[in-house]
Write a structure and sequence with these properties.
Shape of chain B: elongated
Oligomer: heterodimer
Structural class of chain B: alpha/beta
Bound molecules: guanosine-5'-triphosphate, magnesium ion
Mean pLDDT of chain B: 95
Structural class of chain A: alpha/beta
Mean pLDDT of chain A: 93
Order of helices and strands of chain A: HHHHHEHEHHEHEHEHEEH
Largest sheet of chain A: 7 strands, mixed
Largest interface: A-B, 44 and 41 residues
Distance between the termini of chain A: 5 Å
Largest sheet of chain B: 8 strands, mixed
Radius of gyration of chain A: 22 Å
Low-confidence stretches of chain B: none
Number of strands of chain B: 8
Low-confidence stretches of chain A: none
Number of helices of chain A: 12
Number of strands of chain A: 7
Number of helices of chain B: 10
Strand content of chain B: 5-15%
Strand order of the largest sheet of chain B: 3-2-4-1-5-6-7-8
Order of helices and strands of chain B: HHHEHEHEHEHEHEHEEH
Distance between the termini of chain B: 7 Å
Helix content of chain A: 40-55%
Shape of chain A: elongated
Radius of gyration of chain B: 21 Å
Helix content of chain B: 40-55%
Chain lengths: 292, 280
């Protein structure tokens, strides 16, 4: 982990009484390497380091604690804070029905995650209903339908000759008819720079008035994570982030990038292809992964 | 980048940031920048335009596959069997549809094999692409063994006299040993049924992926051997700079790039355009 990487730094800082510009900068070089190798965006790395540096500088060293170890602790704890501090829940408070809108880039895991969420909500006693507004990808609607059967959650029948807005309206109708209390809307993957598709998503959002807009992001995304997250946040908005494919050997620096540029809480992580492989996001666990 | 800048430290910092932001990776970026600083110090490069021109040429050279290093081409095998692999959601199934269309336009007869017997509606998705590209199609009639589908596909390819068979596989994370074993078995079954198959093994990489793409390429290559890379989603804002390292260290060529979701959104890889986009 960062402590191993820090061994050289720790040795050089031994016996010091104060953390100075020079020795803290020394340590920050190691942090920079760790974060960049973990795919954290370069501008986010710069901000994070500047922040940690100012926290560390001038701090008195603690008797019995190596100054190097003290810096590691500051870095680790600060990272946990920036990642959200603690777990964050879905906003399902209040009576009545909730609409959840799933958004994100192509292939990030939206359809699978829609089913994971529905399965989780069903277990928690809600009456979920799913609908696919993806009229573009071949067999996208079928994909959600098959998943719905697997988890025993109803899926509204939609076809590719409907448009997303009609589907949105029909889904709200159906939700009332079926007395469902959570509607999960899967959407087509889209580029943030695709004006037409972003407009479509914006119109769908207006019709649905979702209580949750969940941005589903692939945890292996590199430097580009800040661009797409920022654009989706500015153009559509997001109330939560879900990072998928965290079951790999991914360091997951995209988590820090996305959280930093949008401020949106990361609520869940996907940890596998099965609908059961879904967990709450724990900032402390992810912080350890990112620091390597 | 630095259109009117002067060749100073802050310009070199800006250049470093351009490379890092393009997912070129820390090690390679550091090496490139250090070499540039040395060349500038030795007065070999004197102006910003010279530096930019130099680095573009260096990167183009690195990402251009050395034809001499390439394995003897089996592209003239008949039938030609192509195996498509990669992590979840990279764009394998869509790329196969595009490839099928390209081959059909060239007058080849193509069979698409739905080797993803795991994911919901995977076979339906590929079947749509087979219809759109007017290719023959085979899927599992029962059961979930991808090797069985691939076995039947090879047999069908030979019996119907197809020129090309492209086998889709389920997305899989390279860190999952059992899934990599499944892939090895698929390849074994293919080559047992038709010696030499698969003649091409294409690794599909999502251009939004960060440094993890390097370990994807490494592990997929170690497991079953990769003959070429397809870099998808380059129509987005990601630059896919991670392939520079992959071509350099693993000697794998980038064959095609995906630039959209439609059937003709597949282009041959062009090193000059790829590098130019990094500096846009
Ligand atoms: N290993 C792993 N695979 C996942 C996870 N979440 C989704 N996947 C896989 O990622 C691939 C893409 O998932 P989809 O749900 O089709 O992604 P999508 O965002 O709906 O894709 P588009 O609709 O085309 O934009 C599939 O193979 C899923 O099984 C995860 O947490 N771990
Ligand atoms: N914009 C863009 N989208 C692409 C490109 N290639 C594929 N896609 C999209 O990426 C998503 C995933 O594509 P798939 O072909 O299902 O990916 P896959 O690797 O087969 O996914 P799994 O089988 O689930 O592992 C789909 O929405 C595609 O339309 C590309 O070059 N550009
Ligand atoms: Mg989908
Ligand atoms: Mg597929």
């Amino acid at each position: 982990g960062l402590s191993q990487r820090f061994e050289g730094v720790v040795k050089r800082l031994q016996g010091l009484h104060k953390l100075t510009e020079e020795n803290v900068s020394d340590a920050m070089r190691e942090v920079r390497i760790a974060l960049l190798e973990a795919d954290v965006n370069i501008s986010v790395v710069k901000d994070f380091i500047a922040n940690v540096k100012s926290l560390a500088l001038g701090m008195e060293t603690i008797p019995g604690v190596q100054p190097g170890q003290q810096i590691v602790k500051i870095v680790h704890e600060n990272l946990i804070q920036v990642l959200g501090g603690d777990t964050a829940n879905l906003n399902l408070t209040g009576r009545g029905s909730t609409v959840i809108l799933m958004t994100g880039l192509q292939g990030s895991g939206k359809t699978t995650t829609t089913a994971k969420l529905a399965a989780m909500l069903k277990k928690q006693g809600y009456r979920p209903l799913m609908v696919s507004a993806d009229v573009y990808r071949p067999a996208a609607i079928e994909q959600l339908g098959v998943l719905g059967e697997q988890i025993d959650v109803p899926t509204i029948k939609t076809t590719t000759d409907m448009n997303p807005e009609e589907i949105g309206r029909a889904a709200l109708e159906e939700m009332t008819q079926l007395n469902a209390n959570v509607l999960l809307v899967d959407t087509a993957g889209r580029l943030a720079i695709d004006e037409q598709m972003m407009n479509e998503l914006s119109k769908l959002k207006d019709i649905l008035q979702p209580k949750e807009i969940l941005f589903v992001a692939d945890s292996m995304t590199g430097q580009d994570a800040v661009n797409t997250a920022r654009a989706f946040n500015e153009q559509i908005g997001m109330t939560g982030v879900i990072l998928t494919k965290m079951d790999g050997d991914i360091r997951g620096g995209a988590a820090l990038s996305i959280k930093k540029v949008t401020g949106t809480p990361i609520k869940f992580i996907g940890v596998g292809e099965k609908t059961s492989q879904f967990e709450q996001f724990h900032p402390d666990r992810i912080a350890g992964r990112i620091l390597g | 980048v630095g259109a009117h800048a002067k060749l100073d430290d802050s310009f070199m910092d800006e250049l470093e940031e351009v490379l890092l932001s393009a997912d070129v990776g820390l090690d390679l970026t550091t090496r490139i920048i250090e070499n540039l600083r040395a060349d500038v110090k030795a007065n070999l490069l004197k102006t910003v335009p010279e530096v930019i021109e130099f680095i573009k040429k260096e990167l183009e050279k690195t990402v251009t596959f050395d034809e001499e290093e390439k394995q003897p081409s089996t592209k003239n095998s008949k039938p030609l069997v192509v195996l498509v692999i990669g992590v979840n959601g990279a764009g394998k199934t869509t790329t196969i549809g595009k490839l099928s269309f390209k081959l059909k336009k060239r007058g080849k007869s193509v069979l698409l094999a739905a080797g993803d017997t795991f994911r919901a509606a995977a076979a339906d998705q590929l079947e749509t692409w087979a219809e759109r590209s007017e290719a023959d199609f085979i899927r599992s009639n029962s059961g979930s063994d991808p090797s069985a589908v691939v076995f039947d596909a090879v047999k069908l390819t030979v019996s119907r006299g197809h020129d090309v068979m492209i086998a889709d596989t389920a997305g899989r994370l390279h860190s999952k040993v059992n899934l990599m074993e499944e892939l090895k078995k698929i390849k074994r079954i293919m080559s047992r049924e038709l010696p030499g198959a698969p003649h091409e093994t294409l690794l599909v990489l999502d251009s939004t992926t960060g440094q993890n793409a390097v370990s994807q390429a490494k592990i997929f290559n170690e497991s079953i051997g990769v003959t070429g890379i397809v870099l998808t989603k380059l129509d987005g804002t990601a630059k896919g700079g991670v392939v520079i390292n992959i071509v350099d260290t693993l000697k794998l060529p980038v064959q095609f790039i995906g630039i959209g979701e439609k059937i003709d959104d597949l282009r041959p890889f062009n090193p000059k355009e790829f590098v130019a986009a990094i500096f846009e």
